[in-house]
Design goal:
Length: 420
């Protein structure tokens, strides 16, 4: 898709230049196309992220952005490459003249905006999330607008009508996607009537947030919603996994204090308006076969696992299930009594681990190969589906252990919230 401008450029009646100029133009055409396509990756559009999972979509978005950055950095350099190689001083002077030329103003704006946006994204934890997201979206839109302006003003092939039409259509689509994500969708969510029903403590830094409203949205166990509390800006929402089973009258979210917004959860009053966007995610039983299940949760990753546990119990699912739940300290093993009751009533195997001390009825340690082998010893590993949710280091370690134990990689279901 990003190479479509190259195909359209073949129909332009232009005399080709040297190889380095043509390479520079090609990088510019593909780079601008890729930039416009980035708006579709990042808008939580179900057609894009609903099939592969939002973490996969966003990591693709990040990888594409890095590739785009390389293209943008090389684009002007290629035009003066032979001169740079023959006479570096003159080559740098020519490059400086390009950047300071009034004719290249739009290109310079696009170049600066894109480089700043990508580097800000790579180090986004240095500023509050809501500020970063606003700057990220506006920076990308400025880069896209200036990039199309530059292509139409000085582009050798963009004066060709089909290619010019593609640029204007792409820019319009990008602007409409941003307006939909930050305008129409938040406004519609704000009018839906969702409010906080209650906020109750579950353990150190853990809260159960109950959201009440009109007819509950349909969702699958293990999915998540983006939530915004009160009068938050359209770009100021965060993803939280729903912990209740599908069909429940209210939505329950298990949330750990971990950032700017979650540190004030305990002070949120009942009745406060809530915007919800979702459901999202593919961490669901639909991706599991009919065979046995191993559910692995670490820390705050218990939220979607708890939803799956409650759904399996509510539907009287007959399959064999094993549950492994690990946390740093015993008091962070939240909702443990409920899960023990469900597991014992249904005959599931279960293990609870805490890193710093052994919890009641559990053991001290981490989810290592030995614990996983113990839970899998009565299950054919070729038939089991493993659902993992937890910190990325734990998830990656568990996946390596499972591979060593013979569990097929395609039988491992996970979804990460760390887009880095």
């Amino acid at each position: 898709m990003a190479s479509l401008p190259l195909l359209l450029a073949l129909g332009a009646a232009e005399e080709p230049g040297g190889w380095h100029e043509e390479a520079g133009i090609a990088l510019g055409l593909v780079g601008l196309s890729l930039l416009l396509l980035q708006f579709a990756h990042s808008g939580r559009w179900h057609l894009v992220s609903g099939r592969s999972g939002i973490d996969v979509t966003m990591r693709f978005h990040r990888t594409a952005a890095i590739l785009l950055l390389v293209m943008v950095l090389l684009h002007p350099v290629l035009f003066v490459l032979p001169l740079l190689l023959d006479d570096p001083a003159r080559g740098l002077a020519r490059l400086h003249a390009m950047f300071t030329s009034p004719r290249m103003t739009a290109g310079k704006i696009a170049w600066i905006a894109l480089v700043a946006t990508v580097f800000l994204a790579l180090g986004r934890r240095v500023i509050p999330y809501q500020h970063w997201r606003l700057l990220h979206g506006l920076g990308a839109l400025v880069a896209a607008g200036a990039g199309v302006w530059h292509a139409m003003e000085v582009g050798l092939y963009s004066s060709f009508a089909p290619l010019g039409a593609l640029w204007w259509a792409g820019l319009l689509g990008a602007a409409l996607l941003l307006a939909w994500a930050w305008g129409w969708k938040p406004w519609r969510a704000a009018c839906a009537g969702w409010r906080i029903g209650a906020v109750t403590p579950l353990g150190p830094s853990y809260w159960n947030v109950t959201v009440t409203g009109p007819t509950p949205p349909e969702f699958a166990a293990g999915q998540f919603f983006w939530l915004a509390f009160g009068r938050a800006a359209p770009w100021d929402d965060n993803p939280f996994s729903v912990a209740s089973a599908p069909g429940a009258r209210d939505l329950h979210f298990v949330i750990r204090e971990a950032g700017d917004r979650t540190r004030t959860l305990g002070a949120l009053p009942a009745g406060l308006p809530v915007r919800i966007d979702g459901p999202h995610g593919v961490f669901t039983l639909d991706r599991a076969g009919p065979g046995p299940l191993l559910l692995v949760a670490g820390g705050a990753g218990i939220a979607p696992i708890l939803s799956v546990v409650r759904a399996l119990d509510a539907t009287d699912d007959p399959r064999s299930v094993a549950l492994l739940y690990a946390a740093r300290t015993p008091d962070r093993l939240i909702c443990r009594a409920e899960m023990v009751a469900i597991a014992e009533r249904r005959g599931w195997r279960y293990r609870f681990l805490a890193e710093e001390a052994a919890p009641e009825g559990g053991a001290q340690g981490r989810p290592d190969r030995g614990v996983l082998a113990e839970l899998l010893r009565v299950v054919p590993v070729a038939e089991v589906t493993v659902m993992i949710c937890g910190p990325e280091p734990m998830t990656m370690a568990v996946m390596r252990y499972l591979e060593a134990l013979g569990v097929p990689p395609e039988h491992v279901v996970y979804e990460l919230f760390d887009y880095a």
